[in-house]
Write a structure and sequence with these properties.
coiled coil, 5 helices, lipid binding, membrane, mainly alpha, 2 domains, three-stranded mixed beta sheet, globular, 6 strands, three-stranded antiparallel beta sheet
Length: 209
C-alpha cells in the first residue's frame, strides 16, 4: 500500500468523488433511459418500468455496500499485520487498497442478489411476466459505481424513498408528468445521491393527488 500524505489523500479522494458523481449523473441521463427501452419491450406501463429501474438502483447500492463491508473487514485484517499507524490511518489504507484493487469485488454475485431481491419484491411484476436479467448490464454498472463510492471518505449513498411521503423539493425534482400541485410522492423514478445526510444530486419523483 502506498504511503500518502494527508493532503495527497484528500486530493485523490476529491478527484475520485468528482468522477463518481459524474458517472452517477451519466447513468441517470443515459443508461437509465436505455434500460427503460429494454423493459418497454415487455411492459407497456411506464409507471411500472420506472418503478423497476428505481428499485434496481436502490437494491444495487444495498448489495454493493454489503459486499464492500465484507471485503473491507478482510483487507483491514490483512493490512493490520504490518500496519504501524492508528485505526484512522488503517481505515484510509484499507479504502485506498480496495479502490486500487477493484477485482476483489465479485460484481456478478451482487447482480444476482439484486435480481433475486427484485423477483420477490411485491411491488414488481412476477418473474413469469418479465425477466429482470434484461437490464443485467444496467444493474452491473450501478453495482460497480456503488461499490466504488464506498471507497470514498465519507462514502456516498442513495436515499431510500417511500411511496406517499411528503414531496421534498431539496431532495427531488418532479417528473414532467407530475401533478405540480400535489404535495405527496406517488412513486420514485430515481434516487437522490447523499453524503453524510446531505443531498449531492437530486433524485426524481412523480407527484399525484
Amino acid at each position: 500500500v502506498r504511503s500518502w500524505s494527508p493532503t495527497r489523500c484528500r486530493r485523490a479522494n476529491a478527484s475520485r468523488r468528482a468522477c463518481l458523481i459524474a458517472r452517477f449523473n451519466f447513468i441517470y441521463a443515459k443508461d437509465r433511459l436505455d434500460a427503460e427501452i429494454l423493459l418497454k419491450k415487455f411492459i407497456c406501463d411506464i409507471e411500472m418500468v420506472q418503478r423497476i429501474i428505481y428499485i434496481a438502483a436502490v437494491e444495487s447500492f444495498r448489495a454493493a455496500k454489503k459486499a464492500f463491508w465484507k471485503i473491507k473487514i478482510g483487507v483491514k485484517g490483512t493490512l493490520a499485520i504490518d500496519h504501524c499507524g492508528g485505526p484512522a490511518s488503517l481505515e484510509i489504507a484499507a479504502l485506498d487498497y480496495i479502490a486500487c484493487h477493484k477485482d476483489l469485488y465479485d460484481v456478478c454475485c451482487s447482480v444476482q442478489e439484486v435480481i433475486c431481491a427484485m423477483n420477490v419484491n411485491p411491488k414488481l411484476p412476477c418473474p413469469q411476466n418479465v425477466d429482470f436479467n434484461v437490464i443485467n448490464c444496467f444493474i452491473r454498472e450501478l453495482c460497480c459505481l456503488a461499490f466504488s463510492m464506498q471507497t470514498l471518505a465519507p462514502p456516498l449513498d442513495v436515499a431510500f424513498g417511500v411511496d406517499g411521503e411528503l414531496f421534498n423539493r431539496s431532495m427531488y425534482y418532479r417528473s414532467c408528468d407530475s401533478d405540480f400541485t400535489a404535495p405527496f410522492v406517488a412513486y420514485h423514478v430515481w434516487p437522490a445521491l447523499m453524503e453524510n445526510g446531505c443531498v449531492l444530486v437530486k433524485g426524481e419523483v412523480v407527484t399525484r393527488k
